[in-house]
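Newbie here. two chains, one complex. Structure please?
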Amino acid sequence: MTPPPRRPRRPLPFWRRLSATGWLLLSLVIGLGGGLYYAWVVDPVVFTDASPARFSDRYREEYIILVSQSYAVNQNWPLAEQRLAALEDPNIAETVNNLLETAVRQQRPAPLLEQLAIVARQLGAQGQAIALFAPTLPATTVQPTPTPAIVTTPTNTPPPAATATNTAVPTLTPTATTPATATPQPNYRLTEQTRLCGDDEAISRIEVVVLDAFLNDSPGIEVEVTWQNGRDRFFTGFKPENGRGYADFEMSPDVSYTVRLPDGSPEVSGLRIDECANGLSGGWRLTFQNLREGSPTPPEEDE
Amino acid sequence: MNRLPTPIFILLGLALGAGLGLAVGWVFWPTEFTDANPAVLDDGYRRDYVQLIADSYALDSNLAAAQQRIGDLGEDGPQYVLAVLIDMILRQEDETAIRRLARLANDIGQYTPAMAPYLAAPEAAP
């Protein structure tokens, strides 16, 4: 009699194979996962006493803009610095400069660009946008507008005694001046003044380029050139092949010219045909930028 | 080890694991909080933010932008502006700053008699 065939032994289910320690570890892992899920997803830590350092990108930008506007109002730089420090940004100057450049690309209002540029410059940042919207032009570049309103009163210096030599020339002594009046802010600023030198040709012209606040060419802007006993006025945009904000003027030798924009700009004087390094005559190129928002209305056609 | 483990082990493991998970999630490694808005600022920063809005409004008179920024302070934004203003008046803080804030509060429809003197034009210095 043969023994019945042995039936294969069924494996034990896993829970019967787990030791007590195994169950402990398994439940520990499950509990840990549940705890983390609850703490991170269901009921995460809610911060209510945040600082500006925790702001999202949108609010960081908004905060920087607000600080720059506040600084424009109260001119309190230590306070502005303190506020910016709350962002805990080690590269705050670069951040403000980047925000300025983004704002320039987005064609945000000119006053806002100017306020941001001033703060960026105060922080020590450097860049093209800062140079354009918060320039520190050298004082010698721009000639101040003459103020002929100064009243001078000639006072005769009494002649010296008989022994004196014949130097009794009346001298003019300015004794009274008009009270200082607020100088109106110009609508344009001179952003560039460079010599024009050709490689193989003489140049005797003044080129004027007028840009709006967003550095786009501004057509139809009046330019005035004056010289001794002479004056000429013309408009940008009549040579579109050179740009819609372009205009030029031919100079005569040995004459000094002064250029300004009647809409309100610094006067640039002392412009004359000068010799370049290569021995040829050279001219000048002036670039003006509108400081105000938008472009001025072009003059009428029949003007 | 063929017997089932006692429920004690399971409960002990779950309790230990959950406790460990909560400790890690809430204390040692909480969720990174970076996308804050002005509504969750510390009260000192929130007050300063109100002053920034007032300064900006004094500069550009853009009421829509100011209202949006006040809205970012939370549902109680307009009332909070008024509360900050009253606090500044009571503390006799900088009059110029109070005037700017009073103008903002008035223009968003918040009014208290205490701010009336600051809405009037400042007297000229003798």
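Moderator note: Chain A touches chain B through 51 residues (CB under 8 Å). The mean pLDDT of chain A is 78. Thread marked as resolved.
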